[in-house]
Amino acid sequence: EDKVVQSPLSLVVHEGDTVTLNCSYEVTNFRSLLWYKQEKKAPTFLFMLTSSGIEKKSGRLSSILDKKELFSILNITATQTGDSAVYLCAVGRYRGSTLGRLYFGRGTQLTVWP
Amino acid sequence: DTGVSQNPRHKITKRGQNVTFRCDPISEHNRLYWYRQTLGQGPEFLTYFQNEAQLEKSRLLSDRFSAERPKGSFSTLEIQRTEQGDSAMYLCASSQKSDLGNTIYFGEGSWLTVV
Fold first, then answer.
1. What pLDDT is recorded for position A95?
2. Which residues partner with A61 through β-bridges?
């Protein structure tokens, strides 16, 4: 059965801390792994990873994929209160030559205290 | 606004009534997805379309649920004879098929409460 597991489910830190969110997966016909940020509304796209070992960065956020060990991490450095959200990991399968349905984890609820 | 648009944003209905949600994807996107999300859970896949063709449908989608995309543009999701367990946020997403990889973008969601 295809599944995506995120850990921890909940994390509370203070502003300025660095956090690492984990995502492991077992999905047949893997194509890509995506990270989303959700703040009480629709998920907003952060990263899409398709190749192992290549880090993607956007400001204080970065992510990397390990296709051999079937996991990804999302790092957030110098956290701010605006980073408080649920971070969702999703894995997409091939459908023909492109991305089909996404399998989501339950998310990590990150709370950043001032 | 050129993002994915959903309406209504909120719907309260009595058990047994039918409800319909509409999704307008990003204009150049030919793939359209429906997901359902309940509190504390990640989105669950319901179905998706490429143009007007429904390519995949989840086993979660009972015969009370039907989705259409008649002209390959907007889509509707209808739930017949609603039950309290249908209360959730219904998310629509769209993507563009391309060799560069196609990220899926979500709309704001339609909240359904069945009382």
1. 66
2. A58, A76
Residues above pLDDT 90, as percent of chain B: 68
Q: Tell which of A23, A41, A97 to mutate to test the B interface (max B CBs under 10 Å).
A: A41
User: What residues are paired with B18 via a beta bridge?
Assistant: none
Closest CA to B39 of B92, B109, B107, B94: B109
Q: Taking CB atoms and an 8 Å limit, are A41 and B109 in contact across chains?
A: yes
pLDDT digits (tens, 9 = 90+) for B22-73: 999 998 888 899 999 998 899 999 999 989 999 888 887 778 999 999 888 9
Does the structure show a pLDDT above 80 at A100?
no
Q: Residue A83 has what DSSP assignment?
A: G
Residues of B in contact with A100 (CB under 8 A): 48, 55-56
Chain A residues in contact with B95 by the CB 8 A cut-off are 99
Taking an 8 Å cut-off on Cβ atoms, the answer to whether B108 and A41 are in contact is yes
Grade residue A40 by pLDDT with cuts at 50, 70 and 90.
confident
Tally Cβ neighbours within 10 Å of residue B100: 7
- CB spacing of B55 vs A41 below 8 angstroms: no
How distant is the Cα of B81 from the closest Cα of chain A, in angstroms?
A: 26
- DSSP-assigned letter for residue A50: -
